[in-house]
Every structure is written in structure tokens, then in C-alpha cells.
Amino acid sequence: MDLISGLGFPGSLPDWTNLNVLHRNTLPPRAHFYSYASEEAALSFNYEQSELLSLNGTWKFYYDRTPFEAPIWETANVTDWDDIEVPGMWQRQGYGIPHYTNIDYPFPVTPPNVSYVNPTGSYWREFEIPEDWEDDQQIRLRFEGVDSAFHVWVNGEEVGYSQGSRNSHEFDITDYLTPGEANSLAACVYQWSDGSYIEDQDQWWLSGIFRDVYLVPFPRSSIVDYQVNTDLDDSFESGTIKLNVTIQGEAGNMTVKLLSPDGDELDEWTGSSSDIYEHTLDGDDFQLWSAEIPNLYTLLVTFNGRTISQKVGLRRVEISGNNFLVNGKAITIYGVNRHEHSPVSGRTVPYADMRADLIRMKRSNINTIRTAHQPPHPAFFDVADEIGFYVISEADLECHGFGKVTWTNEQAAEWTSQNPDWEEAYLDRARAVVERFKNHPSVIIWSLGNECFYGKNLDAMNSWIKERDPSRITHYEPDRYAESVDVYSQMYSSPQSIREFIGNHTDKPFMLCEYAHAMGNGPGGLKEYIELFRSEPQIQGGLVWEWSNHGLLKKEGDLEYYAYGGDFGDEPNDADFIMDGLVLSDHTPMPSLNEYAKAIQPITVNLTEDGRQMVITNHYDFLNVNHLDASWHIVRDGAERSAPVKFNVSVPAGESQAVAISTGNQTFDEELWITVEFALRESTFWAGAGYVVAWDQLHVNPPATNQTRRAVSSSKVVRRQEQLNVTQEQTHLKVEDGDSSFDFELLQGNVSWTVDGTDIFQRGPELAFYRAQTQNDEARWGDGPFWEEARVGSMHTQVRDVRWQQGEDGLVVSYKVWVGPKALEWGAEADLTYTVSQGSLTVHASGEFVGNSTPEVVPRIGLMAVLPVEFDEVAWFGRGPGESYKDTKEGCKIGLYEMGVEDLFTHYDYPQENGNREDLRWLQIGTGDDGVTLDARRDGGETFSFTARRYMPYDLDDAKHPHDLEPLDMTVLHLDYDNNGIGSATVGPRPFEQYRCYTEPFDFTFELSIV
């Protein structure tokens, strides 16, 4: 195979490692738009009806380990090449391997140099210019995304070069074409370039032509760029739309039509293309755009036979004091960070998948998206405008890896951010993102990039953006004290540290660009963050990290699973750190999304002290709640016992209103709740009428007896006898009570229970202090390292004394036990007392932790028992239906629930602790109809939590992928007096103090019976 002679290996510096060559023969960045042959076609907003020729599809492809062994186009025999799909990442089509790092560069750090051993993909295809395209036109070739750099040839002649993986690249190829004949297009794509040093985002390193490629014809005189601005008066009751176009060739007449959000024509104007079009709207014609009310006007701009259609939103963004305002209101960001990700195709994300994601976000009360950490596909902004999101549009810029090769952030900045040799590369990325998306009302903030430390090149970016687009504000988190940008921004700070910061920095708005790291089971503590946002006006919200796990579908024979760092043999890697979203890799929602949706819901309801009124608070920034249907119903002892009562309510944005309620008569021993719901009255882009936007439960009163009524779930009748039959057989104490028999093992404290030949407990109930770790626990900032050091997961029970006594109330068996790990001196000194009476078993546990190496917290304090696998059906009165923990339970309603043991399990992409349910009044677990059902509850009606699964905690700890788990032939039941919260310690705080399971004295009782 011939070599690329133009590279002159090794005598010249390749473009892809030359800071003085960012682009060659590319056209200036411009607004993203399509041109149409008619107004009717333009109103479709369908690019397939526009004047373009898509080059997506099957291309020929040749893969090499270096550009210097890649074919040259004059002599290449492409018939021998493979086929590849464009758009697509070549690692997802069988070439090379995906590589995941969070911070580390996957190559030697010698900027701007990258290795000459640089995997290279050669692409080739043919095309013909459509016959109906006019001859005298400029033909542009446009790539919407190529990772990371590439050269382009047309008909064997080199056209140019470009880099900037997630930015667009446009070439004038008019003079390279042969009319009426087949033309060839070739691209040589390089996996690494000097640009890779500033594209070190926390994601998979993937390569190729991964977004659309197409040809666009431009008449010699045509609109090549334009900018739409809106100017609103201070009353926000009128505003002016302004349009300024850029023409190539000769100016001429231009026609502009303005359509209302309903499609009615409001204005038609004809004038010179060199003039600025202006039209003022007021009265009924004036409708503001916001994320809550995304009213969009349409501009139709016709020049020289081509029409451009552009959606326009009337809105104003500004700084006032220490707030940023949208349309005069200090909004609150309830946001999420979103990488573009498909588990199948990587960063090539189908439009339908992207739109489905945004619809799910909207249904989850999310109002803001940060395009972390690079520009997404242009279609994203169209959907954000339409459905209604605020967008923080971020430049394709991150160089976090330099922090791994230096001691301080200042030293890290010297590599690129403070280095004048890199200034143009930084400015190039600012220009690319601003020019491309400047006409979208959803974009309210330009973000300079992410984790590039701080230096004068960021200052230069900020200055250019502020001069080019003063209508928006700027953001950059490493500018911690907002010396250049408009807002204070932090990542993963605790509520306490945020309060301390704003106490000393009061002059600018504050936001969290990342918080609540959604790693697997978590994040915990969302409620506290939202309460902080709503109580401190300077704090304007935050964005959860992040939307989705980034597992890539991997097939090994019949096995399919979602892979993470290292699963492809990629080294170095950051393993499962890429599994950190609110939805799974296949974008199935996780419990955390439900929790977040509840935490940020736009309406909250509280009960007055006298219990006669509910106070409805509207957290919308613009909407009145009267666009929703409001209702409430009574829940007695967990069951809905009344038809919904609809009521009319009108509460303006930011205000509260009290509404009277009546719960009617209630019996003495009922626990009473009121569930209040607010549902869409009319269908929208994102949900149908009846969709519940917000809900709350009001606890009217606990039962007066402090005991919930027992629910009977089977017809099994258990025979009991008046006198227990108690015998000792060596180290076993055996008890007969009618159909029930108990076996107390005296050496190690094990208890078994059989009813009418059916085993209830094969082991336990025994004291348990360990649960499987979550990814948040395992983090170096989490509690997991302390638990491992203290060997909490390998604690053993030693019986130090056992006594029993039989009386009128039954048999009491009392153990004094020590529960502790091998090789260490700490543990729990505890009394375990079992009482057998009337066929039931009461377990009382009390004790304290002793020893100098006692950890501050333990995962749980409670009982563990092993039941036969046939115990598969579970019912409970508590929170559900999904999993919940102390700091992740707000999104789960109190009620009655039934579920199989397998359905209790949350199938995370990375196995970990899961499936807990909080605030139980009672639990029943049984074998089904006419079988045996065990009933469990706390003494005195106290609440508890439980898990039931087919695995021991260490099974979950040992598994690295779901297919590593082998279900046991048993049901492992945990009944917890207390358990540790979840937190977000992978990057953020451990569980807040009120949610921690401290190693303090404990005392609790569980009553177990057969029903």
C-alpha cells in the first residue's frame, strides 16, 4: 500500500500536531440553518425537504495504525475496503477499542505532540450533484462532527483540513466538482490530534465521522448567516424582533414574514437585504418565551429564491444585583448535565433517542440542561426551544488531565490555558459554539468549557463572547470568584459550605453547575439542596451530574452487557466511574430520577398545625398553578379510601395559598394520610392530559393506639397449644408450639423456625451491621474505605452466655453475644432475647459498640434471616413501590404494596446495594395462596426498613457486572432498625448527619408471627 506522500514522514510537522494549523480552507462558523425552495417546505422544519444532499449512509473504509500507512487517493483500490456506516464511531463498528478515562490522557502528555502511531480511518464514497441544482452555485460540504481531526479530498484533490471534534466544519468544494459525473469524496480521520489535549472530557474516547455529512447549495447571491435578537421593554408587555442577515454576492430584495406561535401571519416586509428587519409586538400579539411557557414565533426569510425558517422566542436575559433574570424574574435552575450517549453507537445519537430523553426530562420537572462538556447535535437546540428548556451551552473544551502531571492548578494551567500558543485554539472553540447556536432562545448562558483550570486564554474567550453576544451571560466554574464571568459556580459543594461561601460573596448570582453525583444507587440528600435553593435568593439552583450512564453494549457470544472502563482492555481507565447517571445505559430511569423529579416538583403542599388547611406553594417562575387539575384523596392505613376530590386553585408563581380540607370521620386506630395531586389539564408536547406533575402526602395523624391494624394475606390457620414443649438436646434448645417448632442453637445463636412442616427461618434472625456497598460508599470520600478497614463486612457472632426461662407468657431465650470482625478488637456487645408465645416470635436486641477502632458509622443496624426460596411474595405498608433509603425516600408514597422478591431488586448497570424500602408499618412475606406468610413489625408501631433478595451482601460486593450475579436458592431478609443514608460521596458529600447510622447504643424489638 502506498504511503501518503503529502505528509513527508518524518520531515514535516503534520497538521494534526501543529498548533498553527487549526483549519485549512474551512469557511467561517455560522448559524446552523437549512434553506428551502419554498415557504411551504420551510414551514416543515424538516431538513429532508431542504436544499441539501445527505451523504449519510454506507462508505468504504480502511483502518490503519498510523496516518503514514494510510492509502493515498490517487492509487487506492477502494473496492477492497470494508464498508462502514456514517455517521458512526469506528470503535463501535469493529475497529480499535473504546477507551474510557475520566481525567487521564490515554497517551503520553507532551503537548501539542501526539504519537505518530495514531489510529487512522480512511473514508471514501461517490456522489452525484442533483440535476435540478443550478449550475452557478456554490456547493458547500458540511461535517457536523468528526473526532478528532481530518483531511478532505474531492476527486483526488485535497480540499482542506479541520479539527474540533464536536464543532461543525464547512468547505467550499465548488471548484473541485465535475458536473454531470460521479464525484468522489474522501476523508482521512485521525484519532488523536493536538486538539485531543483540550477535549479531555469525562467520556469514552471514540473516533470517526460521527454526525451528519451533507452538501448544501448556495446561490452566488445568498444568505450565508444571520442573527435574530429580541429587545423587550421593561414592562415585558411589548418587544421587538430584529433580524440582521449576512449576504454573499450582491445584495437584493428580501422578504420577511413573521408568524405567531399559533401560525397566524403578523407581518410581511420586503426590503433590502442590507437593512435590519424590525417588528414590534404588543397586546395579544406579544407572547414571551420561557422554559415554562415556550412560545415560539416563526420567521420566514426569502432571498433569491431560497427561504430560511427560524423559530424565535421573545425573552431577555440579564444580570440584576446578585441574580440573573429571565424576563425580569430570578429563575431557579432545576437542571441536569447531559453528555450525548447511545449505548449502541456512542456519541452518534439518533434523533428519536435524543428527543425521548428531553421529553423524559421535561416529565421529570427538569428545566435546564448543560451541554456537558461540548456542543451536542444541532437538532438538540430545536427540541429544547420547542419543549422548553434553559440551556447552558458549553464549548468543546476541557484539559483536566494536566492536573495529573502537576502539583497545583496554576501549574496545570501553564500547559494550555495560560499558554499564549493555545489562545487561538481556545478562541476557535468559543467562536464555533456561539456562532452556531446564537439564534436559539433556549440558550441563556454560554459556558467557556469545563475543568481547564484558569488562565488568560479563558479570559480571552469570555471577552470575545461578551462583545459578540452581550444578550447572554457567561459561566466558567474554575473562575471560582467570578473575576471574568457573570456567575459564581461550584461543583459538589455541601449545603453548609455553600452558605458559608455566599455569606462572604454577595455580589453575583451563585449556581452549582454540577452536584448530587448520580452514581448508581444515589444521590442522597436532594431534598436538602432544593430547600437551600428555595431559601437563598442568591442561589439560583444547580444541575445534577448527570443524565445517563455511559455503558456501551458489549456482546460476548450469547452474553450482552453494558461495559465500562477496562472491559475492552483499555488502559489506563477509570472503570465504572462512567456509570453515573439518573438513567441506565439503555436510558431506563433509575430510582434516582423519580427522587429528583419529586424533589424539584413545581408545587409543594404542607398541612397547617391545626390540620384543617393545606398550604399550596407555587415554585414556578412564571406559571400559575391554575393550568393544572388539582385533587386530593384520603389514604387510611395505606389504602385509598375515598374518591378524588377535585378543587379549583389559583396560585401565582412564587406565592402560597391555603385551602380548607375535610377528612370526615375516622376510626380510633386508623393512620390517616391525604394525597394531593396536580395533573395536566391539557395535553402538551411532552405529556398527555392527566399526567401528574406534582404530588404530596399530608400525614394527618398516626393511629391513636400507635399500632397499625394487621392485614391478613393468606387463609392459613396455624394451630397453637396452651403449653410449650421445651427440650434441650446437647447444644440445641427445641420448642414445640402446636404447628410451630423452634430450634435455638446455643453455641452460635442460630435460630430456625418451622410451621406445619414449612421452614420459616433457615438461619437467623441474627444481628446484622453490614449491607453491600454502593458506588458512593466505595468512593475514597465515602464510608466504604472505613468499613473495609474495620472489616464490617466480615463480622461474626460469638455467644458468651445463653439462658432460657419458661413462664405463663411463653419461653424467653436470652443470648449475650459479641458481634465483631476477626483480627480487630472492636465490636458490638449485645443482648438478643427471643420470646416464643402463641406461635409467634418476638426478637428484642439491645447493645452498644465498643473498641478503639470502632467506625463512626456502620451500614445498618438490624436483623438478618435466611428464608426458603419459596418465600417469594411480599406485601408491605410503607414507602413504595420503588426502592428508598433515608435520604432518597421523598419520591415514594406511603401506601400498601405487593411485589415479588425479584421485582424488589433494582438492576443497576454496576451491581451494588439496592432494593431497600423505608418507613414500614408492617411487612408480610410468604409462599403464596394458602401457604405460609410471615408478618413482621416493630414493637409499639415504630417504623423500619427491609430488603428481601436472592443474594448475600458479599455477592453484590463481589459482582462487577449483572451477569456475575448467581441467584441463591434462598430469600435473604433484612429487617432494619436503622441504616446509613446514600449520599453522593463519589464526588461530593457523604450522607448528611441526620441520615448517618452512627455506632451508638441501640434498642429495638421486632414482632414476628404467622398470618
TrEMBL record:
Catalyzed reactions: Hydrolysis of terminal non-reducing beta-D-galactose residues in beta-D-galactosides
SUPFAM superfamilies, sorted: (Trans)glycosidases (SSF51445), beta-Galactosidase/glucuronidase domain (SSF49303), Galactose mutarotase-like (SSF74650), Galactose-binding domain-like (SSF49785)
Cross-referenced SMART domains: Bgal_small_N
Gene3D superfamilies: 2.70.98.10, Galactose-binding domain-like (2.60.120.260), Glycosidases (3.20.20.80), Immunoglobulins (2.60.40.10)
Top EC class for this record: hydrolase
CC terms in the record's Gene Ontology section: beta-galactosidase complex
Keywords linked to the UniProt accession: Glycosidase, Hydrolase
A GO MF term: beta-galactosidase activity
Entry EC no(s): 3.2.1.23
Chain ranges of the Beta galactosidase small chain/ domain: 734-1009
Family from the record: Belongs to the glycosyl hydrolase 2 family.
Name of the molecule in the record: beta-galactosidase
Organism classification: Eukaryota, Fungi, Dikarya, Ascomycota, Pezizomycotina
